[in-house]
Amino acid sequence: MTTKERYYLTTPIYYPSDNLHIGHAYTTTVADSLARWHRFAGREAYFVTGSDEHGQKIQRAAAAKGVTPKEYVDEIVASFKDLWERLNIKYDDFVRTTDERHHRAVQAVFQKIYAKGDIYKSAYEGWYCTPCETFWLENRLEDGNCPDCGRPVELVQEESYFFRISKYADRLLEHIEQHPEFIQPESRRNEMVNFIKSGLEDLCVSRTTFDWGIPVPNAEGHVIYVWFDALTNYLTALGYPEPTELMEKWWPADLHLVGKEIMRFHTIVWPIMLMALDLPLPKTVFGHGWLLSDSEKMSKSKGNVVDPLALIAEFGVDPIRYFLLREISFGQDGNFSRRALIERTNADLANDLGNLLNRTLSMLNRYFDGVVPEPAAALSEVDRDLINHANGLGAKVDDLIKDLKINEALASIWRLVGRANKYVDERAPWNLAKQEDKAELGTVMYNLLETLRIVALLVKSFIPETGAKIWAQLGLEDLDQNTLADTEWGRLTPGIQTRKGDPIFPRIEVEKEEPAPAPKKPEKPKASEEKAPGPEGVLIGIEDFMRCELVIAEVLEASRIQGADRLLKLQVDIGSEKRQIVAGIAQHYEPDDLVGKRIVVVKNLKPAKLRGELSQGMLLAATAPDGRLEVVSVSEAIPAGSRVK
Ligand code: ME8
User: Fold this and answer.
1) CATH topology of domain 539-644
2) Contact 124, 130 (CB under 8 A)
3) In degrees rounded to 5, what are phi and psi of residue 70?
4) Which one of 179, 366, 451, 530 has the fewest CB atoms closer than 10 angstroms to its CB?
5) Model pTM?
6) SS3 helix, strand, coil % of the chain, rounded to 5?
7) What is the homologous superfamily of the domain 337-487 according to CATH?
8) Whose CA is nearest to atom 12 of ligand 1?
9) Is the distance from the beta carbon of residue 23 to the nearest atom of ligand 1 less than 6 Å?
10) Which residue's CA is the nearest one to ligand 1's atom 14?
């Protein structure tokens, strides 16, 4: 039996000094998607995350709240785990630096390096940035502040232990040169090389002015510097210092995924710690860019953070995961905005993917009672083009993921989705359905269903809920038994009964602007324009109008939506069923005034989400000259469900 390829990947362990924001969710979503993909592609993956709980920053935050540091971190770390669960993050281990096993690992690392003569005692005098937990020499400060975060630094004068990192500078430079994949992306490699060449100072690795940390062995009053402590977590997860099977199997790590601001620790301090321990270095450290909010890095102190839990509650998990993975060029900074999230969701998820599934299964229900037909052997040029797009895409995505080109991998999957939507228009199944012989129609429907099956497999590592939903609607089972090899064309078995469900991504309506002030009375058209088409310049036929199903709905309940001052939520009876409709009329009606009214609604409008609420239809209203809205209604003589035409 051949052994599987292995992939050990990690995220930073985050500080529980505050709740996590969408920036932390970004790194962890990427790592989770990579781990899921590698498993799908037949490799074994081990994915570790955790929390960095010691240090001055945490001790101060706990004191400010009047609780012990342990009480303080316990509560916040529980919220980390809760967030990961809601984001569908499946890690293999979660290292807390307050874990006993971690204490043992850190003390062992310290002792080994000390025994080797690479840690020595001296006195430190310099500057310290507590938010970054970083020592700075005077000459690196910028305007007297921390060069990384711009915040004030504090003078530190302590007896400390020092790590002789200067001794390893040349060896590290040589390693970086010989392993171009070690520091990625390339721009950060150059930055790090320049930093090393500008001269490395020995690093202070213990503190004495507070006690929230792991004690230095046999040195009372000293706790180990929080970064020396934190970096060791990547070994703790494997059972270090014991010679465990995990250590044997997974070290060295394949990928440390981190934000660009902590590259120095991961590409200089950490590899030198490993060299001093005689352990091999991780294969790659990738420093991704920042998520910006209005072009500034998100951070609690700037008050511009975005809370992932609120976003998940409003939009669901997969739109958030998809946005993070697709929108931001991996490695570069990217902007996060609500508008961009909504636009991305509507364009790629609702219109392209959701609609492809919906229209395919609707046609299948109409033409084949929802059963997957047998494809005919004869293929047209267009059929072959679709199949060529789908076949081999799995291997291409795999290459892109191995190269950490995550947004490009998703773009390549969406090119297939786009190709399939175009295929529907080109092959026009509604025309083929008019033919006596249904073979060609069967082939076209099979090709669409097979494309959707392949797409479900390709997307499930990135947006797991969506992959599972498509799979279920296709009537398929055992999604997790499938591997990359199953993305080969032609594995869909004819005869399967599909199960069309609700649209997987209802369109999200961007909340409407205030109604525009009433337009001035139009001037009388000039004689030459009198017979011109309507305001949009287009005349429609009666059949166009009849496509719009207008019906009478009785309003059963009406209520306001918290946090949306323009919206009302209505429960209405449209004769055949009850529905929820969200309408932008809250500034014109009290909810109670609407109850009992018989209003006109568009029944066959695509469902949409407004402020997290599903809206299944739209009511009609007219604007009075003063800008007031009046809902169109009829008398009680007309029962709910009556068609308006
Ligand atoms: O640095 N955009 O923890 P931390 C993108 N405990 N990613 C962001 C981000 C943003 N705006 N903000 C945060 C620490 N991140 C140390 C790590 S590891 C041994 C110790 C992500 O809570 C990104 O991965 O400050 C960044 O490196 C990390 O969160 C910093 O998390």
Assistant:
1) OB fold (Dihydrolipoamide Acetyltransferase, E2P) (2.40.50)
2) no
3) -65, -45
4) 530
5) 0.81
6) 40, 20, 40
7) Isoleucyl-tRNA Synthetase; Domain 1 (1.10.730.10)
8) 23
9) yes
10) 14
